[in-house]
Design the sequence.
């Protein structure tokens, strides 16, 4: 008996009822269904970007292996099935109306965006590109609210984001007279140097990045302990989950204790539940980082920071963060 795969069938017989053409945030004209009810995000940074406005329309989240040990996020997110975006047949079984990918529109070349569109073309599904730039997220949620007919949820996100932008703007005239270092990987010697998109929060708040070094293709640098001791940063922030978090290594090391930041009790573990506040992935989680760093470097009232971050969890993660949970966020 002749058999045809799901992939082959849907490619040979594309059929979009009541289609319309939109312009996405990368300036691409995309034909999409008039009514969007099923969405698949392209990767883990897009998962959480979509969730606040598309919780009931996400038929899956992109596989990231992130559910294990994840907490402080809605049960509906944790229970949502994962899909491997490398597997066309798996995606087509879900039969999404559109795929959505978040990327840095102004920084990425056409070639980078083409990497996403090739897969969408392969399965004959529309791909919509939205902007992940930290200081453009309000526009992103305005766009998503319109695209998905979720204007009320979109506006809640927009209003919150603009309140964060306003806070950051109010501190621009208050320079930071200190240097900071991001410690990543088990050894703490992998870092996001000056100019890296992974350290954008430092740049936005006028915090001097202690490391000025060439970056690898992913925007990180490996340095030696001698290089770190030479710059001797005022603050050290440890970033990572599980055994990739260097906080315990740094805190207990006989070598690291000679650094000014450790001596002066300016060693911090960046909160990482459900996602790291500083980066990795570079998505809405960085809004919490902006608020937290305003408290540390700009003397923003800690109670106000707590209230704003609790509000963030409610709007974006659909989770009621308790006082006890908030106080535990910096635990390793």
Sequence:
């Amino acid at each position: 008996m002749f058999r045809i795969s799901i992939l082959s069938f849907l490619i040979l017989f594309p059929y979009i009822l009541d289609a319309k053409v939109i312009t996405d945030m990368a300036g691409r004209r995309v034909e999409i269904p008039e009514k969007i009810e099923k969405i698949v995000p392209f990767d883990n940074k897009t998962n959480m970007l979509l969730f606040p406005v598309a919780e009931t329309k996400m038929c899956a989240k992109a596989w990231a292996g992130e559910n294990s040990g994840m907490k402080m996020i809605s049960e509906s997110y944790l229970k949502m099935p994962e899909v491997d975006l490398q597997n066309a047949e798996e995606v087509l079984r879900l039969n999404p109306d559109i795929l959505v990918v978040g990327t840095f529109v102004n920084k990425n070349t056409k070639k980078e965006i083409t990497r996403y569109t090739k897969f969408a073309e392969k399965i004959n599904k529309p791909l919509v590109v939205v902007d992940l730039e930290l200081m453009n997220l309000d526009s992103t949620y305005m766009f998503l609210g319109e695209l998905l007919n979720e204007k009320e949820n979109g506006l809640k996100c927009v209003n919150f984001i603009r309140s964060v932008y306003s806070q950051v703007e109010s501190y621009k005239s208050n320079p930071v007279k200190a240097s900071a270092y991001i410690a990543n990987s088990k050894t703490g010697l992998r870092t996001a140097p000056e100019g890296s998109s992974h350290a954008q929060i430092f740049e936005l708040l006028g915090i001097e990045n202690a490391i000025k070094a060439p970056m690898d293709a992913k925007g990180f640098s490996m340095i030696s302990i001698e290089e770190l001791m030479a710059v001797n940063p005022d603050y050290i922030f440890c970033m990572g989950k599980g055994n990739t978090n260097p906080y315990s290594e740094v805190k207990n090391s006989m070598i690291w204790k000679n650094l000014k930041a450790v001596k002066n009790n300016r060693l911090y573990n960046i909160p990482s539940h459900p996602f790291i506040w500083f980066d990795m992935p570079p998505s809405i989680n960085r809004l919490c980082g902006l608020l937290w760093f305003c408290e540390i470097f700009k003397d923003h009232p800690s109670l106000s920071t707590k209230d704003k971050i609790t509000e963030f969890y409610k709007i974006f993660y659909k989770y009621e963060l308790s006082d006890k949970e908030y106080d535990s966020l910096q635990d390793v």
About this structure: The chain has 14 helices and 13 strands.
